[in-house]
Amino acid sequence: MNLEINNLSKTYSNGVQALRDINLSIGTGMFGLLGPNGAGKSSLMRTIATLQEPDTGSIKLGDIDVLVQKDEVRKILGYLPQEFGVYPKVSAEVLLNHLAVLKGISNNKERRELVGALLHKTNLHASRKKNLGGYSGGMKQRFGIAQALLANPKLIIVDEPTAGLDPAERNRFLNLLSELGENTVVILSTHIVDDVKELCTNMAIINQGEVVLQGNPQEQIDTIQGKVWKKSIEKDELQVYKNKYRVISERLLAGKPEIHVLADSNPDSSFEGVEADLEDVYFSHIIGDDIVVGSPELENA
Ligand code: ADP
Q1: Contact between residue 188 and residue 243 where contact means Cβ atoms under 8 Å apart
Q2: pLDDT tens across 75-104, in order?
Q3: Domain 3-214 CATH class label
Q4: What distance in angstroms lies between residue 40's CA and the mean position of ligand 1's atoms?
Q5: Contacts of 262 (CB under 8 A, 6+ apart)
Q6: pTM here?
Q7: Atom of ligand 1 nearest to the CA of 43
Q8: What is the Cα–Cα distance from 212 to 122, expressed in whole angstroms?
Q9: Is residue 136 pLDDT above 50, yes or no?
């Protein structure tokens, strides 16, 4: 089953154009939707999840017209929104069971087995009697996946799931995502390049409501291989380098900025060639934005 998005646009009533003529073709497996905050990722995810309407365009999931046959989509959709609220005074087992009833799984034995299997799968079985209010961020996200999997979905959407998770929790969560069925379309929206690098066979980068790149991560890296150059500079030289070269990223190493420059050949002998990675691909496409490079947990430091 393929998800085909054509000419999708959306302008909110406050005049913000969140989606600009989006065209994406997404097959089964893990698809990464990468973009900075405010790029339009959530707007796109909510539109695919039938929670809001675009102004123009179409979305097809196999034979289903997503914008028209909303009930059909909801039957096969697992959605983990960015802000996943839980009832704090209810245990994971009780809430999951309750949600399974709402999904129409009325046979007690079948429901008990399914809830048990999902709690095992998400590694929450040992904490199943604990109230959700006492869960860590990572546990809540894993619970979110458990509820998203209740309907045996064919389309799974996870919106910025790793933001705010510590590295161990993030790993556990990404491992769980990677185990989701190969026959399922899984869309992972994130502003963390490593999430996509580690998991996704295909991806798109969106910026300011537009798809600026779509393809296989490794192939995209290959296109800039041999063209990325690094140099350690002084803080007050940054603007000079930005004026002169195509600086795609800057990061502080021991208090000194190290810049990455994209150029067909070595700008001068003071630069050193580096192995390009997905971060270089990403920043070469969203150039001009305020860029922060580093591990996710340091981003807001
Ligand atoms: P992302 O998920 O990539 O951070 P969003 O889709 O949340 O991006 O937002 C894209 C743009 O649309 C932002 O400028 C945001 O402020 C704006 N936006 C999002 N939701 C609304 C809304 N309901 N009303 C008005 N503007 C919105």
Answers
A1: no
A2: 899 998 877 777 889 999 999 999 999 888
A3: alpha beta
A4: 6
A5: 224, 227, 228, 229, 246, 248, 280, 284
A6: 0.86
A7: 6
A8: 34
A9: yes
Name every protein residue with a CB atom under 6 angstroms from any ligand 1 atom. Answer: 12, 14, 16, 18, 35, 37-43
> Rounded to the nearest 10 degrees, what angle do helices 217-224 and 278-285 cross at?
80
Is residue 171 pLDDT above 60, yes or no? yes
Angle between helices 137-148 and 108-121 (to 10 degrees): 140
Task: Measure 39 CA to ligand 1 centroid, in angstroms.
Answer: 8
Tally of residues, the chain: 301
Distance CA 160, CA 81 (A): 8
Q: Which of 17, 33, 37, 43 to mutate to test the pocket of ligand 1 (most atoms within 8 A of CB)?
A: 43
Is the dihedral angle over the CA atoms 274, 280, 285, 290 positive or is it negative?
Answer: negative
Name which of 228, 208, 205 is nearest 289 in CA terms. 208
Helix, coil or strand: residue 235:
helix
Query: How far does residue 54's CA lie from ligand 1's centre (Å)?
Result: 13
Do 19 and 75 form a contact (C-beta atoms < 8 A)? no
Burial label, 236 (beta-carbon count in 10 A; 0-12, 13-18, 19+): exposed
Domain ranges of the chain: 3-214, 221-299
What atom in ligand 1 is closest to the CA of residue 52?
23
